[in-house]
């Protein structure tokens, strides 16, 4: 029970932050292995709400080492701002290290994200405009800067001299401001000074902890359906949020990561563009959005809302091997007059139980639902499974039957304490 991977199993914002923080109270280490400050992870305890972006959700436990691992992209300015905000909120005793192999997300990546979205017009992805796609593109193009470069001044200067002209050609092609060497170099030196003591080989550290049988939690960002490979391409993010990616993105053998907890909302949400078969456009969407406060943590955009889609959950289970579910925001369901679960799709007159790879085909999928009776009780104070209303339990048991996954955790409110655990996982 020493390692646990927390996997977003829909389109993000499933409540990964809440669950990670919950387990982090017993964790020796919490690792964020991909994504950047496109993530927004909300945590509520002691009547305070915190919104984390790149900082791992173990930050509130002073005994936990928080790791920003090699697969992440680090916006230095945003990370500094995030830490300053936490410190102003009284979170001063924390442990944080950053991989020397993590790529640096530069201001020009943000400029390019905005320009590319604008040029896509109607076909825009609806990104968070944080520069994530362009930063991972630089990484794959081998013109990225890495955290460890901040510790090697000669290399930093030489590398910057060779990559900046290439970056400026692209900026110019979008009529964007070009960057001078001095400007970029002084920016990097400023943050090198701030972060130099936190930069290390995090893979060695994580493996040491695992060998010592310490408790290591891997916090996913985004959701499986936003995976660059297995998500609703091209309406995805630019990294892989799958549990499968954690091994590569944090430098740990895959056989050490054999326990995966999928986190799913009791319904579905999505921000940004892209297919969403069980999306609702009626008053039920508004009811769920208001009760669930479904507005983006990062961009404040209203989230798109739909019924729970078990075709998606089964698809993600197949790819990731997730064995358990944490079912989140179950309290919000009480606004509905009946509960529906999508169990298959109709595509061109055929019933299918998979997610088509092609965007147009997925857009043509119509959801097939089962309908269950609702519950109207306020469950936000329930402390055990037995206390839940019968119809709530029937809904949970239906999900278990359709997915073959054990719903091991039920979340009945945003607070750390509003968590029902049916099975010890960590
Ligand atoms: P993440 O990105 O997966 O960490 O999820 P977000 O934090 O972006 O979005 C989840 C939202 O749901 C946040 O506002 C949480 O405070 C809230 N939340 C989490 N669990 C529950 C729950 O069980 N009930 C309610 N009502 N809100 C919850
Ligand atoms: P957490 O960790 C929800 C979405 C964006 C957009 C697409 C690409 O809080 O669950 P990007 O800026 O990554 O290039 O945007 O991915 N997206 C998220 N949606 N939750 C997130 O993170 C997301 N991170 C990215 O809205 O549709
Ligand atoms: Mg979020």
Topology readout:
Blueprint: E1 3-8, H1 16-24, E2 29-32, E3 41-45, E4 48-52, E5 65-68, E6 73-74, H2 76-88, E7 95-99, E8 103-104, H3 107-120, H4 132-141, H5 153-173, H6 181-195, E9 199-200, H7 202-211, E10 216-219, H8 243-250, E11 260-265, E12 268-270, H9 283-291, E13 304-306, E14 308-309, H10 310-320, E15 324-328, E16 338-347, E17 350-352, H11 359-364, E18 366-373, H12 390-403, E19 406-411, E20 419-421
Parallel strand pairs: 1-10, 1-11, 2-5, 2-10, 5-7, 6-8, 7-9, 11-15, 14-16, 15-19
Antiparallel strand pairs: 3-4, 12-13, 16-17, 16-18, 19-20
Characterization of the model:
The chain is of the alpha/beta class and 426 residues long. 33% of the residues lie in helices and 21% in strands. Strands 9-7-5-2-10-1-11-15-19-20 form a 10-stranded mixed sheet, sandwiched between helices. Strands 14, 16, 17 and 18 form a 4-stranded mixed sheet that branches. It is globular and about 65 Å long. 48% of the residues are buried. The mean pLDDT is 97. Bound molecules: guanosine-5'-diphosphate (GDP), 6-O-phosphoryl inosine monophosphate and magnesium ion. Magnesium ion is lined by residues 12-13, 39-41, 297.
Q: What is the structure about, briefly put?
A:
This protein is α/β, with parallel strands linked by helices and 426 residues long. The chain is built from 12 helices and 20 strands.
